[in-house]
Design a protein that fits this description.
five-stranded parallel sheet; about 425 residues; globular; alpha/beta; 10 helices; five-stranded mixed sheet
């Protein structure tokens, strides 16, 4: 029987899984012949870590996309790149939006999580992606007062990049909690972030206030994940500007601002803005997973430490990256390491050692926030790092070159045995 491995989803997890499958099962002369299919709605790798700066600096943003055709080893005859949207994941096949079915002997689900545009990129090609960046940039450039709603990591970096690149604009960051940055982090880190945003970048912070109404609304405010599952969030905008709304209305008398109604514990009030960008978290693609209810929830796929689905009947299906319902901070590095574990375990199973599988470790929480080009904050090893300790990890390209090297996008991956000791993380 042919060994057909399908990897559903690309980027940090999916592409790294293919890279390690290539090293262990194609580049290695000792492995049996396999066919690997990568299914991705994009035609290349997108360095999402740099997306907020890519929006405020489109000339930087165009560097974030690396087309698959530029990756030599992906052209190997045993690897197929299928640019398509996954419509369903079933126990023995995946279904594409075209209706085509791809059967597999092994599957890695690496579909990630979805965000609304422009943070979420619906673009299928680099050219389309560049156009999306320029469209968002134009709205920001034209506005005088900009409101970013949601002070998670993305909202913080979005507001900081806007203020850093447009220091004369009024930038307001609105968040429903009393401190920014939800998640398993210390208040010490949160207070450091507040100090940088408020006192060093001169961003207006509105904390403990929830946006309860917006006029005109952005597209995402009317979006229902359950009812509109055929329209991915990346095709739905979370951004609206007064200028764009006026153009859409084709009326010179259109309102010249956007009204936000805010509500908090102590008061309710309104604020005005020329441009609003909502950064309110991610959506999981659990509705695509036609698998037992006990292993699928709105949090994603429940997996074992081997990254196999948590059901012995589906030991041939693995999941890695943000689609997994694991109690870890969603980071590119974690997704890439888990992809290595999943790929290694598939290789070990194929090479006759299904009882010698690797286990993914429990990664402690850590985060590095890049607030413009001059400011940053990091928490790791359960403490806030000093600026001197953090600075070596702050890179001008926001880690793009390191990811290119780690994913072997510009060089041939070395062959190795799946039984070799794991790399340090």
């Amino acid at each position: 029987m042919a060994i057909n491995i399908v990897v559903a989803g690309g980027n940090y997890a999916g592409l790294n899984a293919v890279r390690h499958l290539y090293s262990t099962l194609i580049a290695s002369a000792k492995a049996p012949k396999v066919n690997i299919t990568l299914v991705d709605r994009r035609d290349g790798f997108l360095h999402y870590i740099g997306i907020t700066r890519g929006i405020t600096e489109p000339h930087f943003g165009q560097k974030l996309w690396v087309p698959y055709t530029n990756v030599p080893w992906l052209q190997h005859p045993q690897i197929t790149i299928k640019q398509a949207t996954v419509q369903g994941v079933h126990p023995q096949h995946i279904e594409l939006a075209s209706g085509e079915q791809l059967r597999f002997s092994h599957l890695i689900v690496a579909l990630g999580q979805s965000r609304f545009a422009p943070i979420g990129a619906s673009s299928p090609t680099k050219h389309d992606f560049e156009q999306q960046l320029h469209a968002a940039f134009a709205q920001i450039k034209q506005a005088h007062r900009i409101a970013v709603v949601g002070a998670g990591a993305v909202g913080i970096e979005m507001a900081a990049d806007i203020k850093s690149d447009f220091p004369d604009k009024s930038v307001t960051l609105v968040h429903s909690r009393e401190l920014p940055l939800p998640g398993p982090f210390s208040d010490e880190l949160r207070h450091k972030v507040v100090d940088i945003l408020q006192n060093q970048l001169q961003i207006d912070l509105v904390l403990g206030q929830r946006v309860v109404a917006q006029d005109p609304p952005s597209e995402d405010m009317a979006y229902s994940w359950d009812k509109q599952a055929t329209t991915p969030p990346e095709q739905v905008s979370s951004m609206v500007s007064a200028a764009a709304a006026a153009a859409a209305a084709a009326a010179t008398a259109a309102a010249d601002n956007i009204s936000l109604a805010l509500s908090g514990a102590s008061r309710q009030h309104k604020m005005q803005s020329d441009c609003v960008l909502r950064c309110l978290g991610t959506l999981n693609q659990h509705h695509l997973l036609h698998l037992p209810d006990q292993v699928v929830s709105k949090a994603g796929i429940r997996v074992l430490d081997t990254l196999q689905i948590d059901d012995p009947a589906y030991s041939h299906i693995y999941a890695c990256g943000d689609i997994c319902a694991r109690n870890v901070v969603k980071l590119a590095g974690v997704a890439m390491y888990d992809a290595y574990v999943a790929a290694t375990n598939i290789a070990r199973s194929i090479m006759g050692a299904p009882d010698e599988l690797m286990h993914s470790p429990q990664f402690p929480p850590k985060i590095l926030l890049l607030m413009g080009k001059q400011h940053f904050a990091m928490e790791a090893d359960r403490r806030v790092w000093s600026d001197d300790e953090t600075r070596p990890f702050v890179l001008d390209d926001m880690g793009l070159q390191r990811c290119i090297e780690a994913l072997s996008l510009h060089q041939e991956p070395a062959a190795y045995s799946p039984f070799d000791p794991p790399p340090a993380f």
